[in-house]
Amino acid sequence: MILSNLIDYETLRVIWWVLLGVLLIGFAMTDGFDMGTAALMPFIGKTDMERRQVINTVGPVWEGNQVWFILGGGAIFAAWPPLYAVSFSGFYLAMFLILAALILRPVSFKYRSKREGTRWRSTFDWCLFVGGAVPALIFGVAVGNVLKGVPFDLTPDLIPLYPGNFILKLLFLLNPFALLTGIVSLTMLLTHGAAWVSFKADGVVAMRARAIGSVTGVIFLVGYALAGIWLAIGIPAYHLAAPVVTDGPSNPLWSEVTRGGSWLAAYGERPWIIIAPILAFAGMGLAVLGLRAGREGSTLLFSKLAIFGAISSVGLTMFPFILPSSLNPTASLTVWDASSSHLTLFIMLVATVIFLPIILLYTAWVYKVLWGKVTVEDVAKNSETVY
Amino acid sequence: MELGVVELSRLQFASTALYHFLFVPLTLGLAILVAIMETVYVMTGRPIWRQMTKFWGTLFGINFVLGVATGITMEFQFGMNWSYYSHYVGDIFGAPLAIEGLMAFFLEATFVGLFFFGWDRMKPVTHCIVAWLVAIGSNFSALWILIANGWMQHPVGATFNPDTMRMEMTDFMAVLFNPVAQAKFVHTVSAGYVTASVFVLGVSAWYLLKGRHLELAKRSITVASAFGLAAALSVVVLGDESGYTAGETQKMKLASIEAMWETEPAPAHFTLFGFPDKEARETHYAIHVPWVMGLIGTRSLDTPIPGIDELVAKNKDRIQSGIIAYDALMTIRADKDQVPADVRATFEAHSADLGYALLLKRYVDDPRQATPAQIQQAADDTVPGVGILFWAFRIMVALGFAFIAVMIYFFFRSSFKGQSYPRWALRLAVIVIPFPWIAAEMGWVVAEFGRQPWTVDGVLPTALSASQLSVGDLLFTLIGFVAFYSVLFVVEMGLMLKYIRKGPHIDVKETEAWMARHEARLTSDRGDKPYAAVPAGE
């Protein structure tokens, strides 16, 4: 197809790197508050009615929000096949845990209030907690491990290899730095969930959410700062050893990679990227102040800003690396050698340009229809139809 | 069979896919039936149709959520368990999956929440549009998934790139309008419509047997039997289309379904019954119907359908040709900057058979070192499990015809016999409920087990596609999935039965108000009111 030559391969790769970020950020901003809300629910709702109030703040929207995640997976598969192949199988057991949690979540939302029994409901309440907290934690753990480098290798046929005992590999993922980034991601989404609940619910539930959220927000700020310092002094970075062909074939073994120095050197090379961590700090700081003061709309916007800053800071710091290999740095995946073909990237871009605005439009319409607070009275009145 | 990583990965994929496919067909069909019911409500304003929409909608919701939840597993498993597959064909296979998310799944998932939560927040006609958007979204979803799957069955519009060691897309339109994908899509969604129709029919028949919810049950039977009849007819007709495209593109699958060991003079007969024996290369106790297979497979009386032995011999030639391609590929890879032009040309000439050389990787690391015995072995491997395919196909087809009979009968009674149904027929309708699922699962077996030993037909062998995981990894997740899914299944069935037993929520006040408004219309010429009372027990 000649049309695909309208945009050169290098540009398409950068666009798809940005879109990957957009999808992850979109996921964390939308499904993130579902996860945060679900994880907070057993603590901010004491009675069954309060818990139902919390659940119903996300009841009508979690399903659509979750598609950001599904689409993220699909887009990685289509635009970054080597990344999809290596990361999903390399993090095998961790992915399985995320999967189990993500299956538990929809089921719990839907089935929890379909029976009366206390045991039935409290079981599903804790399933919801797991479905929210576990993915939020593991995503952060995964980011920490990506920054450190993941122990994989590629054969000349590009078959991904991950030597070692499977249980040990899972334990190895839970190293201190990754746990720290896990806590950062968990507290980020908990605060986001708290901001959502205080925006969408009222009464004692919203009050408790604000109280917890202003604590988790502070933990995020401390954890994010600590992770930054750790990254500066404790985690060796990856570098392309020689200038690479940015529009060449996607073969990760063709570029040479070395380890050493600090990831934060990127801030020397591209000073403008400092804006990302500034947004993360400022957004979360303002969100905490907002939660304390009881401001609703602006607080939710600020916690979104924090998510935008935190996630983009990771991507911008690592650029052009996407998934470094600690076992054989040369096998590391970068923006320049882990993408789909020129044609596929172009077709996927066309599809995205057509459909993403439509998705944003109807999603906005749905939120507008559902505008307004969810109260205990609403839940009691529509007890048959709501969660 | 020794249970290595590949076998365990296959077992896990098959179990999770078959499990996922318990929920998908009902979602596809019930979404449309619910939207039809709501449309009738919007057009007539009669509360009973709204109550029907809500009732079947509740059952739809219980089923839908597990379809969504188990679908996440499917999307992830390609990367988790089939990483070489994902690398090798992700450039083509990933695109329809991503577009599915963009175009279909976002639509259905965003509006499904509004369907359940938005009853009082919008006008009836708007809510009805929302119901249709959910139905359209879920059906589009099936379209893109089957475009992806169709490419595995009949890979078109792609070529192997030696630099990236993978298949790359050359023609998106060819992938999109792949005839196999199109035939599969219409066949699969029709099967979903049959499943939902049989489900609605059976549950309604149970209500009639119990003398409950007669208003809802009779109307539901009318909708389900009309829609189900059209669907049951099209599932067979379009299944025949699938068979015809298989005759053109997947000859080995067709020959295996038929247990046709040797090429027969055209037009080939159809084996109605028999016991295929792969070792002896014959089908014991076979009952043949002359001509039928030739007609289905080629739509002609003079085109022969190649038998299994002839296809194995052809595949052996393709393995030889593939080895030449493999040899050229190794030369290209050894010094990518200085490849002699003739090596490139040799590779191009034989690259379509490269996948056949990869079949040898099960027996030898370098296909060029393969012995003649290993080549023969690899050629024999291209025959899928004939016995299983033979029977799965026959069960599916027999059930397909049975559904047509059931639907014709109920459509006839509902249209011409004043919606009166004998008790034996109602009992039959209840008993039939599980069978569409059996037919659908058999269909999956025919399509995917019949694709073996390939993940992508002629391009990538299954044995090579799996991730390099350990048996421990696989046992852990396989046991985890089976245990987890079993619990979910029990929970789901329990809820389904609970809500079926509970029946619809009939709002008497709403019904009476509507009847009062339409009193004139509901009064007969003689002045009596046949519809006046709300039936007892509702």
UniProtKB/TrEMBL annotation, chain A:
Membrane topology annotation: Multi-pass membrane protein
The keyword Metal-binding is assigned to this record: yes
Subcellular location: Cell membrane
Predominant subcellular localization, coarse grouping: membrane
TM spans (from-to): 14-33, 83-104, 124-147, 167-190, 211-233, 272-293, 305-323, 343-365
GO molecular function, one term: oxidoreductase activity, acting on diphenols and related substances as donors, oxygen as acceptor
GO CC annotations, alphabetized: cytochrome complex; plasma membrane
Source organism superkingdom: Bacteria
Protein name as it appears in the record: Cytochrome d ubiquinol oxidase subunit II
Underlying gene: cydB
From TrEMBL, chain B:
Keyword annotations: Cell inner membrane, Cell membrane, Electron transport, Heme, Iron, Membrane, Metal-binding, Transmembrane, Transmembrane helix, Transport
BP GO annotations: aerobic electron transport chain
Localization in the cell: Cell inner membrane
Membrane topology, from the record: Multi-pass membrane protein
Source superkingdom: Bacteria
One Gene Ontology CC term in the entry: plasma membrane
GO MF terms, alphabetically ordered: electron transfer activity; heme binding; metal ion binding; oxidoreductase activity, acting on diphenols and related substances as donors, oxygen as acceptor
Membrane-spanning parts: 20-43, 55-72, 92-117, 129-152, 185-209, 221-239, 388-412, 424-447, 474-495
Pfam families, sorted: Cyt_bd_oxida_I (PF01654)
Family, as annotated: Belongs to the cytochrome ubiquinol oxidase subunit 1 family.
Protein name in the entry: Cytochrome bd-I ubiquinol oxidase subunit CydA
